[in-house]
């Protein structure tokens, strides 16, 4: 089965992991700080590493002070963790509809949902294309809220010349194997605000405080540490950070390859009937994580089944979050975000990853042409 996404591992990645395994550190050690510094160069803001993209969101919401009685506005066109991380902290999740062309959250729809209880507005950079952060920033500032960017798809992308990671108050990354770079499992939170970043760092380390200037009882002894607020152990180990630093050195290569594959899809599929291709935006330079086409005329399920039967691992990204039973049981109903639901009904992600060969891409194109032409 040709996968829709997969990691790219070479000898430099293996060597970095082997060196870490031979060192004195397997969990938190010097490679964590090194990877965080390497991430800052790409993200444009200081970063704290965590165990995965889901825990990155949970830690970011905790750092933002999300709690019972708060509202978090986000998009339904995302993986469930964007919403569940806030719900786990007691917040009410409010879904705003998406832009028809990009499937990114619509700033106008966000503005219409904001109330005095809005604590966080959480955008998602769908398929690697950054959301419209300038418009979202205006809405967020007027609401007195915190802007969060879920950049699980978009590390290495830029918006109006600025790197993803420097656009929101808090930005979360995922380094799952299908993402733009990988640590196996892993994630990070970037922040342009030192106070929020400190809260993330403390939360991901079980809430432990060791800084003498922050201790309530600083004279207890050199061993002393305190917990002022509850946190969790979300620390990313040294051995995975070693892989992350090695992968970051290849990010420009990954970006170039994904851009070339995207351009080939654009060219080879341009005249296929019943197919709508993803849009290009002039104000962003994305690392294209997904290649999401839209299958028209109600044929998405047929095309999905026939491509999978042919050994081509297409995917659907995503089921609208509030369709999940956990949200249905909370009273959310279908029809809330009609643009997102129409997008979902047609969306199909074609294989896209750095090591995808031209011949395998040609196979995808030929199979899709054959199905839609029949």
Structure description:
It is a single chain. It is built from 13 helices and 15 strands. By secondary structure, the protein is an alpha/beta fold. The strands form four sheets. Strands 1-9-8-5-4-2-3 form a seven-stranded mixed β-sheet. A three-stranded antiparallel β-sheet has the order 7-6-13, with no helix packed on it. Strand 6 (158-159) and strand 7 form a beta hairpin. Helix 1 (11-21) packs antiparallel against helix 8. It starts with 10 loop residues before the first helix and ends with a helix.
Write the layout of secondary structure elements.
Blueprint: H1 11-21, H2 30-43, E1 47-50, H3 53-63, E2 71-74, H4 81-87, E3 92-95, H5 107-113, E4 118-124, H6 133-143, E5 146-150, E6 158-159, E7 162-163, E8 170-174, E9 187-191, H7 194-203, E10 208-209, E11 226-227, H8 238-248, H9 251-268, E12 275-276, E13 284-285, E14 291-295, H10 300-309, H11 325-328, H12 338-346, E15 347-350, H13 358-372
Family: Belongs to the DegT/DnrJ/EryC1 family.
Keywords: Pyridoxal phosphate
Active site: 179 (proton acceptor)
Write a concise keyword list for the protein shown above:
374 residues; alpha/beta; Aspartate Aminotransferase, domain 2; Aspartate Aminotransferase, domain 1; 2 domains; seven-stranded mixed beta sheet; three-stranded antiparallel beta sheet; 13 helices; 15% strand; globular; pyridoxal phosphate
